[in-house]
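Sat 14:20. Reprocessing the chain from the morning session after the first attempt stalled halfway. Input below, unchanged.
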Amino acid sequence: MTNEELLEWIANGEEAALTKLCLVNTGLVKDRAWSIARQYHCLRQTKYGGLSDYAKETLSELESVGKLTLVECVRAGGYDPEKGRFTTYITPFLDGAMRRHLERSMGTLALDRDSMGLVRKAQRLYYQEGTQ
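Finished this time. Tokens:
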């Protein structure tokens, strides 16, 4: 069953379809969480090559934020199937919510978008220099 069909069921009052929609899109949420965590250099590794506890906790938090955002967007009902696929519609909402979560937890929420870009660039340079 496609996302669009599930959204129709949800619109008709079928609550079980919302659970199914969340399960179907778990891969998308996880993928976006990994992407955002990578951008913010949160995927630290242990000396044995596995993810650190910090990285695992961060990914778990981002996935939770993503799932909540998915449900909120479905409940808001702003998706129009005429304009494209549901996954294309939801991705910017997921990314934005996950970024805001990380910025709040990093203590940088007061920075504007350009300044936050500079912070990410400095982090990237720091980690590139540190790994060589």
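Helices lie at 3-11, 16-24, 26-39, 53-76, 86-106, 113-131.
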